[in-house]
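From the thread on structure requests for the teaching lab: each student submitted one protein with a one-line request. Submission from student K.M.:

"Model DeoR/GlpR family transcriptional regulator of sugar metabolism from Rhizobium paranaense, tokens only."
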Amino acid sequence: MKREERQQSIINLLIEHKSIDLDDLADRFAVSKMTIHRDLDDLEQAGVLRKIRGGATIDAGMQFESDFRIRERQGNEAKVSMARRALELVEPGMTVMVNDGSMAAVLGEMLLQKRPLTLITNNAAIIERLKNESGITLIALGGIYSPKFNAFLGVVTEEALFRLRADIAFISTPAVSGTLAYHMDDNVVRAKRAMIASASKACLLVNHQRIGHTALHVMADLSAFEAIITDSTPEPAAAAQLERANINLIIASD
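Reply posted by the TA:
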């Protein structure tokens, strides 16, 4: 197993169990304890775990999971499937808004397939990837840079969005419960709300594992979105509640 694959597996184990044992990792991957030490050092330096005596841990809860550095390493297959379905809502010539987040970053790169486009975003990963691409009129939203979200946020971002209009906005969220979408950070919430308000229509992207969860702030009612795209069918109770509310739920895996 390559180092990158082993480190990804370590992250997946941490996400599932919240803490891991160094000896167990060495046995699991059939490598030396020193090799695991180096892996944990790399991941700690990247800010995605905290080494402790005999292993490593992460801080439980949404605060940790919201960090772009951990999210960009999670669930790439699900992100790609959702992005492909979202791409079906885009036509060449549109003006498209894409928000912060690792899910949105995957979609941002796929939008090259639909050029020419005008793309409005505060997502630093998208800005860096698309800044030299032909056929993309890139409007990069300014503001205060947040390493945690790898995005530009704050009053400057919101004021810029107030003066722009888009055909569609793609909004990602880490939590949906009932008919509400949530987020843990108030600056991110305000930026997402500003995008929704500045677009003719909006589409919400959420991993099915996050349906049935809440976070600190209510971001929006699901009725604000023309469609909700998720990677797989959510739990039956949650799916039934969305159906009763006449929410247009699109399952990317279908």
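TA comment: The longest strand covers residues 166-172. Residues 60-68 have pLDDT under 50 and may be disordered.
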